[in-house]
Design goal:
Layout lengths: L6 E6 L4 E10 L8 H7 L5 E12 L2 H15 L3 E5 L3 H12 L15 H34 L7 H11 L4 H23 L8 H39 L2 H7 L4 H38 L5 H11 L2 H27 L5 H33 L2
Parallel strand pairs: 2-3, 3-4
Antiparallel strand pairs: 1-2
Length: 375
């Protein structure tokens, strides 16, 4: 019979054996006959003899077909013999029988159970928590060495990080702070108007901006802008093996790369927070004066009377801590990045998410602590 690729014909012998004579070209780019179809034609045979005396050109399609036919025959309890097959095909089939299948090569996929999924998630959380504690510990040691003037990093790297985290961030911080101040003033005025107390919009804006919104919103903006940039930079350096090179030459990546970025955000976040207070105050004044009919002098007087140094101190403390958290989150995810382009993107995303979660949690903790101490 003729297949679409290789040809074969069957000859039945008196001793009950069936000879499968292969002829023509047997190549992978051509369709081959099914071993089950061949055995179906030789259903009464006690032995199947595979004869390759009339073969033409061949490649690995031939030994693959012969092996499949032999296994199918063995499954039916029929013996097989090979006659006049090419020497190269015989060697390939011998090698296939000799080399064992690697462990897991034929492992079937299965759906994990609920307990396994929960356990794996718990182990990932524990591993991530351990890596975070280790990184924070190394960061604290780097700060301690800096305080003792033993940290090694380039001053120009610190200056560049200060510029990127400070002056270059004024635009986005201005926009967000102005809008936040305006939104708080508008929402507060709508409610205060019910009681004829629109003038207290100034109190609401200055207190909320100084204590909460200025440090928090500035930190979130810097997490999306600077923290993601830190993760991408260090992740790319991990891919290019630059961090490994620093270790090889005896430099500490924590001091040389992380410390300048952390110091820059520690210095710039409080300053940006003060700037955010001013811009947010202007946003609230725009709504209060332009929409609520409050005079400029009244708004200013009410703001001065409501502003307290304690509120700005609370915001300043929060800004310093948030700066550290954003820097640690960005640098940690960058240092933990895998060695591929997609891993760098995941590191940047993870840095932003981690920083925002830490900011919100820290703000909640500060609120409780300051309430206890009376600030």
């Amino acid at each position: 019979m003729t297949g679409e690729g290789g040809d074969y014909r069957l000859e039945h012998r008196a001793d009950g054996a069936t000879v499968v004579r292969l002829s023509g070209d047997w190549r992978l780019d051509r369709a081959l006959p099914s071993p089950e179809a061949v055995l179906a034609e030789a259903s009464d045979a006690t032995t199947v003899v595979i004869d390759g005396g009339e073969l033409g050109a061949w490649d690995t399609a031939l030994p693959a077909f012969v092996c499949q036919l032999s296994r199918a025959a063995a499954a039916r309890g029929v013996e097989t013999e090979r006659v006049a097959l090419p020497e190269g095909a015989e060697r390939l089939m011998k090698l296939a029988r000799t080399v064992p299948v690697a462990d897991g090569a034929r492992r079937e996929s299965r759906r994990a159970g609920a307990v396994e999924v929960v356990g794996a998630a718990f182990l990932r959380v524990v591993s991530d928590a351990r890596a975070t504690v280790e990184f924070v510990g190394e960061a604290v040691l780097a700060l301690w060495r800096f305080a003792r003037r033993r940290a090694r990093f380039r001053g120009r790297d610190l200056a560049l990080a200060v510029q990127e985290a400070g002056a270059e961030a004024l635009g986005i911080v201005s926009l967000i702070s102005f809008l936040v101040g305006a939104i708080m003033a508008f929402v507060g005025a709508v409610q205060l108007r019910l009681f004829g107390a629109e003038i207290y919009v100034a109190n609401l804006v200055i207190v909320a901006m100084a204590r909460e919104m200025a440090p928090m919103m500035t930190g979130i903006v810097m997490a999306g802008r600077t923290g993601a940039a830190y993760a991408a930079q260090l992740g790319t350096m991990t891919v290019n093996e630059e961090i490994d090179s620093l270790r090889t030459f005896g430099f500490s990546p924590m001091e040389f790369l992380v410390l300048p970025r952390m110091l820059a955000l520690m210095m710039m976040l409080p300053l940006l927070s003060i700037y955010s207070n001013i811009v947010g105050l202007l946003g609230g004044a725009t709504v209060g004066i332009g929409m609520m009919g409050i005079s400029g002098w009244q708004y200013w007087s009410q703001t001065v009377s409501a502003a307290r140094i304690d509120d700005f101190a609370v915001g300043g403390i929060k800004a310093v801590v948030i700066g550290v958290l954003v820097a640690v989150a960005g640098c940690m995810r960058g240092m933990q990045s895998g060695r591929s382009a997609s891993a760098v993107g995941l590191a940047a995303t993870s840095a932003v998410v981690t920083a925002i979660v830490w900011i919100v949690v820290s703000d909640a903790v500060f609120s409780v602590v300051f309430d206890v101490v009376g600030l």
